[in-house]
Structure formats: C-alpha cells, structure tokens
Input
Amino acid sequence: MTESSQNDYKEMNEIIIDLFAPNLPGSTKEGDLIQKALRDKLVESIRNSINLPKSKNLSGVARFIDESGRNVFFVDGTRGAGKTTFINSVVERLNHESNDADTGIKCLPTIDPTKLPRHEPILVTVTARLNKVVSSKLKGFWSSNQYSKQKEEWQSHLEQLQRGLHLLTDNEYRPEYFSDALKLDAQLDYSIGGQDLSEIFDQLVECACDILDCKAILISFDDIDTQFDTGWDVLESIRKFFNSQKLVVVATGDLRLYSQLIRGKQYENYGKTLLDQEKESARLAERGYMVEHLEQQYLLKLFPVQKRMQLKTMLQLVGEKGEHVKENIKVKTAPNMSEKEAIEVRDAIGSAVRVGLNLREGSDADMYVNELLKQPVRLLMQVLQDFYTKKNHTKYINGEQGVNEQVGEPSVPNLLRNALYGSMLSSIYRAGLNYEQHRFGMDSLCKDIFTYVKQDRDFNTGFYLRPQSESEALRNCSIYLASQVSENCQGSLSKFLQMLLVGCGSVSIFNQFVTGLELAGNDSGKSEQLISEYLAYMSVGRNESASHWANRCCAVVANNPNDAKAGVFLGMVQLNRQKRSNIPDSFNVFKIDEEKGLAKAAMAASLSSVASSNLMDFSSVFNLIGAIADISACHRERAAITKAFNKAIAQPTCIVPPWSEAAARAEMKGSNKSTDNVISLSASEPITNPGIEGDGESQEVQIQFSGAIESLEKWLEKVGEIEASIRPSALLIGKVWTRLYFNLNNVADQHKTRIYNDSNNGRKASLSNAAKIMRFNVLAFLHAVLVEESLYHSVNSEEYLGEGLRLNPITSVDEFEKKLKSINEYLKSNRKSWSDNHPLFFLLISCPILHPFIFPVGGVNGLPRSYGKEDSFRSLIAEIIQPDETNSYFLSKSELSDLFQNETPSTSTNPETYSKTISTLNAATIAGAKYPDPKTAQESSLSSNDDAV
Output
C-alpha cells in the first residue's frame, strides 16, 4: 500500500464527533459512530449466519432438541455504552444493503420492551410488526394474480397462529361454559395450536421472506434488562419461538442485569413454603449453587458465547497513551472547528482534565484521563459536550462583551465540576457525599474528603483524590472531588492552607492519634460514634476557620497515650506553665512579654491552650499555618486585618477531646465548645499576654504591634497581586501535607532525644530546645511547599529543579539550602521570578509571621562549618523576598552575625534586632522533658554527629 493510499485509508476511517451538534435520537451520522469496527463485524456475522447449509435432519423432534442453530446475537454493554445508537446503526446498515435477494435482510423496527403495553406478549408485538411490513408490500398487489397465492398463504398462517396466540392473550377463556363435547373439542384445538405455535411462527417467517423477497428477517430488542417482567417475556419468547433459520434476533443489554433477572426467576421456581421452611445451611448452599448453575446454562443456551459481542469503552477503542491508535476518533471542541482541526479524543479529555483539575501534563493527568475514557460513552460525551460548550460560551462573552471571572463568569475548574456533578450524581449519592449545590464550599468539601477516604480506607494518600479505588463509585467521586478542590482553592492562599489542614490533616490526625479506634474493632456502631465525635470536635464540615482546627489539633495530638512523656509532639511543643525544680538556671518558664514586636506577635500566633485537669500550653506550627490562612483571607481590608490579627494572637483555649480519658467526667463529655479566650491562671504563673486579652484592648494592640500589622499589610499587598496565579490541585495539596506530616514526625522523634541541660544555645545539631524544634517545624512546612510545588504546581511545567528530593530538613538546613540555591540559580539564568514559578512558596517565605521562627536565638547551628550554610540560607531567603534591598522585618547579614556567629549574641546587638527573631523560647522548659546532668550530656554529644540531618 502506497503512502498516499494509507493516508486516504486513515482519513476514510476517521471518526469525527461534533460536540456542538444536536444530541437527539437519529441525529448520529455514519461518521460519528465510534463502534464502527464492531458494527461491521456484527453485520458480517449476521450475513454469514443466514447462509449456513440447511440441516438434512428433518425430524421435528430433533429440531426442538437441537437449538444450537438459533440466530441470536447479543450486544453487551453497560448503561450509557451506546447500545441504542449501535443497534440502530446495525439496522440502518442492513436495510441499506437489503436490495440483494441472496444476502438481503429485512429489518423490523427495533423493539423497546419498556415502551410496550404492559400485558402484551412479545410474540404478538413481533407478529403485528411483521404483518404491517408484509401488508405494506402486498397492498399494491391485491388485484394481481401473481401474489394471490402468497396472500392466501399469509392469511392462512396468520389464522393458524391466531389460535396459539389466543392462549397467550385471552385470560377470560373458560371451557366450563360449554358442553362436554364442545369443551373437549375446544381444548384439543387450543392444545394443538399452543404445541405447534413455534413451528407455525417459523412458517409465517418463511412466508414473509418469500413475500418480501429477502433472505431473512431481523428482529432487534433494545434495553430488555431495564424492566424485568417484560424482559423475561422477551427471553422466553426467544427461547420458545424464535428458532427459524430465516429469523435473526439481535438483543442488547447489560449481561450483569440479565444475570440478575434470570437468577430472580429461577428462585421463583422454588415455592414460598420451601424457601421459608428449609433453613439448613447445606441445603441453602446447594440451592444457591443450583440457581447459579441454571442461570449460567440459561444464558449459554440463549446467547451462545460465540455470538456475543461487547461494546468497547473509549479507552479500549483509542488505546493507552503511547500505544498504537486503534481507532482514530476525533472531536470538535469549538463551534466553527473544521474536521481537519478536530483533535484526538484523548487530547480533548486531557485538556479538560489539566485545566479543570490544575494538573501538569504527565502520568498523574493521564490517570484521570484513562479513568474518564473507561466511563460509559454517553457519560463521557456529555461531560465533554457540557464542558466545551460552556467554555466556548464563556470565551465568547469575555471576548465580545468584556465580562470576566471577577464579574461572575465561572472558572474552568467550575465548568468541569458542574459537568462531572451532573454525570456522576449516582456515585455521589452512593458514597454519601454532599449533593446539595447550595452547600458547596470548603466546609462541606473537607467533610466529603474525609467521608471518601474513610470508605476507600487509604488514610495515607487517599486525600490525593486519585482514581485508584477498587470501587467504581469511589473512583468517580475522586475525580469529582478533585475538581471541587481545584475550583474552591484556585486563586486563594487562604483556601490552599485551609484545605491543607482541614481537608488533608483531619484524615492523618484521625488515623494516627484518635485513640479508641482500634478498641472499637468491628463494632460499627462504636466506630461511627467515634468518627462523629471527632468530626464534631474538629469542626470538620462546619464553617470554621483554619486556626480553629489548628487549636483543636493540639489537643488531639497531645492526647495520644502511646507517645513519650516529653512534650514534643507532631509539629508542636508543650511548654511548662510553672517553674520546675532541679533544672539548670539557664532554663525558665516561657514568658511572651519578653519577646518584642513582630517576634511577640509571631510567638503569640503559635500558642494555644488545652483545658484538662490542668491547662496545657502549646507552641504549634499548625497554629501558625492557621493564622496565616485567616490573615491572608482579609484582602487588604484594614478592619478585617486588625480583626484577624487580634484573633491570631489571642491564644485560644479548647477542652480535651470527648473520647479522651480526661473527658470522662459528665460535665466535659460531649462538650465541643471552645472558650475562645485566654483563661486567667495568674496563681499558676501562666504564659500571659496582658496586652492582647480582650477586644477592649484593640487600640492598645494596634499601638503595641503597629510594626507587625504594617508588615502584614505590605505582605497582603503581595498576596493580592500574586495569589490569582495560584492553581492548586488536590494532588499538590495532598503531596505537601504528606511531606510535611512525615517530616514533622521525624523532627519530633529526633529532637526529643536531644534535649540536655546545656542545649539552650542550640549551636550544635546534636543539641535541641523548644526554639530549635519550632524552627524546624516551620522549615519543614516551607520545605514541603517548595519541593511539592516545584513538582506538581501547574503554573509551570519544568521538572524538579532542586537537589536531594527525598531529604528533608530535620536537624540541619543543609538540604533546604541546596534546594533553594539550585532553584534560584535556574530561575535567574532563565530570567524567571519566584512569584511566577513558585507563587505559593514565595508568599509563604515572605510572610512576616514565619520570619522570627526561621532564625530564632538558640535555634541556629552556629559552629563554623554550619554557620556558612546558615548565612547562605539567610542570603537566599533575603534575595527571594526582595532582591533589591534587605527587608525591614527580616534579619540582615550583620544582624545574623551578631546573634549567631559567637557562642552568645553580641552585646552590641541592636535592640530592634530582637523584634525580628524569637529570643527567649530556647530557654523555655518543655513539659515532661528530662534535663540530664552535664556529664551525661557531654558523653552523648560527643558520640553524635554535629551536622546530622
């Protein structure tokens, strides 16, 4: 075959689907049928079946025993697979080729049993349609002697068939009304008619073929399985009556539903008394086995395996990505697109997935594309049609009238979410997710994600929302929820952080820290009660802020009885409220008033308390993330900024979880309300912040923290300029959380063993304290965002630019510094900016609330070989934040040197420097931590690696 002929052949076999064409019955063109190859195969099989040599065995008994010659073809396909379009195309093709008497097949109109009168037997329906076709042919020849014999034969066959049909239709026939002789004669007459009904119908079909001048007659049934009563009548009619060699039957349906239909009818063969009284397990198992056997054999007898055809999914038609294209199926994704401009169906779906789910091109997007290609063709085409028609409509409005998303135009993820919602509603119902459109939002979405993961049982990565579940319904829900995440979080730093904590964090925290889940075991009632208590306590599904969740998280994590006694937990440290005895003089109770300016505000934002038998104070990275989420939602409104700031530094208090041992008392059990203010415990020397306790002090707060508020206002200007470019996916957010979560676990495990009585200066990696722990918690957060955004954020398509992908900062900034340096050099060499390529990381590393924790006093490795990395790390951050000048609320090079290059901060350090860094947390005692004697500490430090990661 020449190259030109190959191209002609390819173009001839192209299937072009116009997404903007009317989607009505009968509107499908010849070139639009995606199952053309299977259609042609079925047509060829039908032709071959009517040209088989006739059997020499004329015995009537043998004819009824041997039914293998029945010309019945079955087209298997699930709901929406395109069965109706397919069978109509088969009928159209055979009718088009019916002129040849040797191979001609006359097709009766397709019969949909669900549209027939309820009590009309199928044999009556088929006979009536056949009679209509024959009568139409004979209508023009009533006066012709040529057809007189055929007319008489046809009428004779109809009259003979009438007596047998009477048995199927006349429920009022009662022989007892007649004399004995008449009764016997009538019963014999009807009996003969019923016994010979199949043979009479065969003769009727042969006569019809002679009149219609065709080789065979085709009867097609569509959707037999959707109405079980009528469906059973069709199956029995095929088995009993449609046995002629000149009759071809094509039935469509879902073989799984046929199985259910036949199974139910076979169980009906058992009397109710037998079903009710036989309770022995052996007999029940035997009965089940026999029903399965009858079901299987009935289907094999009615629809032989060699005469079954299965409609293919779009994935089977087009093949996996990179495979040889099996069918050249293209779609028009724009109203005026020509056939030459039409794109591959995989590309059309891929484009919708990438822009709708905010995914990069690659294996992750391909996973969603393949899952959509596996969907029923009807669902897939309707999703594409809804998405592209509305997308093009939006483009038209924006182009012609200047309307944009700010005025109310839906975003691309919103278009995809709407299309998926309408097409996957049954899966949403089945999974128990929210289906009320007026409730769509972050609150219901976070609860839906938890519900989805709980059913999928993948608590480690289920919130990635990748379609990998064993359940088809859950796979559908994962795509739908992923579109909701993209829609809700697009263009919002605040919602990105809220989804990170409430959407993903709730799953991991529940799986690891909710005690009692293992005790509940297989007791579904107790498990559901525990889940309900957890969701209510964490306010998952309620319209609450991210900081509210973060405060409760401290109580849940610290409630784990399996954890060590030292108050170093996942992402947080528990600080002593009272001075402890037998501890070095360099350690003391943390007092926030000793911090200054921005450092004081940042430290206050990290604090929260939990009310148990005693109050417990925590400094937590989750509180910091929650505070950033709340503040970044303010959108430069002065009043909103002040309100969010006041809330962030208020150190809220919540009670212990209702399932904990401390909540066993009746007055605490079941209570979910937070005090939402600071509990005054002056007698126990608490961590106090007298300037930020109540709303009445708001003016004093603004004066005291004027510098911090001003820095946040400047930062919010950056947020307003940049966050519109944020396009997070469920995969990105889930990846960030997973890296952060396991890094925080490692930080806690490593640092709780490095607390010694001379560790307050923290100059060695082998020595740790509260300040260093919180520092690496914050660095773990920033590092997770940097790495995963570089890998998965759809704003850029570069491969990972950093070094040491799997290594996380635990006790040293070395790995973090390498990644920053590598990415920064790449961006500079390609004249790209951090804000364009890594908007999430840029906004977070620029956030003033985090800066005091990046270089806290006592938290920096200050030995000569480590200090160089710390200095380089600071310079890189300063360059990212503002390349032209040193940021006023971030440490300068000289300030870093004054604080950390020597054993202790320089006495000449500018007092203003201490407003940029946490200066007293390193000396705060950690609850439950042991401070061994100096000799033991010295021996341990000598045996450890100072710069271990």
DSSP finds 38 helices and 13 strands in the chain.
